[in-house]
Design a protein that fits this description.
This is Large ribosomal subunit protein uL4. By secondary structure, the chain is of the alpha/beta class. It folds into two domains: about 150 residues, Ribosomal protein L4/L1 (Ribosomal Protein L4, Chain: A, 3-Layer(aba) Sandwich), CATH 3.40.1370; about 50 residues, no CATH class. About 35% of the residues lie in helices and about 15% in strands. The chain has a six-stranded mixed β-sheet with strand order 2-1-3-6-4-5. A hairpin with a 5-residue loop joins strand 1 and strand 2. The longest helix has 17 residues.
Length: about 210
């Protein structure tokens, strides 16, 4: 698959051949759903449990008289009615760390990239800016027609000037190639890849 490469100012910068094994697959909704669900579940923190009466460190000895005390007949300080006792019907631990086969994860990322390659993929030469300012970057995006949410993926590390300029633009996120994931790719309207990011992503699956 051949795609035109452009600079951030909109000028043409040649063509690039995309690997069909990474950018030319037919997306499957069931694979994408499994991978997105796996990613979102793993982003959740573990739900902390409360301590019930079997978890509280208090004496279990009968601490009052059976008769003559003028109170109810209690035999356990860990009972929920006492201060410091266990909680009745408390929250249970819920761990959201689910697993997913590595081949399915890789296939999901390929399909997400392929879906954007068909509609909403832009390849740029690099993220170097003549004027590394948020106002200048916003004007360039408007000139190129990038509306809605935009995800920019660079190579090993993100260009520092571009990262700072894009930091104040609403709906614009910047990631290195190693941080590319299915959920972020699919939820953005436009995907911008640098030539370095394309090489890193293709090498990620071919290595």
């Amino acid at each position: 698959m051949k795609v035109k490469v452009q600079k951030l100012d909109g000028k043409a910068s040649g063509d690039i051949e995309l690997n069909d094994d990474v950018f030319g697959l037919e997306p499957r909704a069931d694979i994408l759903h499994r991978v997105v669900t796996w990613q979102l579940w793993n982003r959740r923190g573990t739900a902390r449990p409360t301590r019930e009466r079997s978890d509280v460190a208090r004496t279990g000895k009968k601490w009052g008289r059976q008769k003559g005390g003028g109170t109810a007949r209690h035999g356990d300080r860990k009972a929920p009615i006492f201060i410091g006792g266990g909680k009745a019907h408390g929250a249970r631990k819920r761990d959201f760390d689910i697993s997913l086969n590595k081949k399915v994860r890789a296939l999901g990322l390929k399909m997400a990239l392929s879906s954007k390659a068909k509609d909403g993929l832009v390849v740029v030469d690099s993220l170097e800016l003549a004027d590394a300012k948020t106002k200048a970057l916003k004007a360039q995006f408007e000139k190129l027609g990038f509306g809605g949410k935009v995800l920019v993926i660079d190579g090993d590390s993100v260009n520092d000037g571009f990262r700072k300029a894009a930091g104040n633009l609403p709906g614009v996120n910047v990631l290195p190639a190693v941080g590319a994931n299915v959920y972020d790719i699919l939820k953005h309207d436009t995907l911008i890849l640098t030539k370095d990011a394309v090489e890193k992503l293709e090498a990620r699956f071919n290595g």
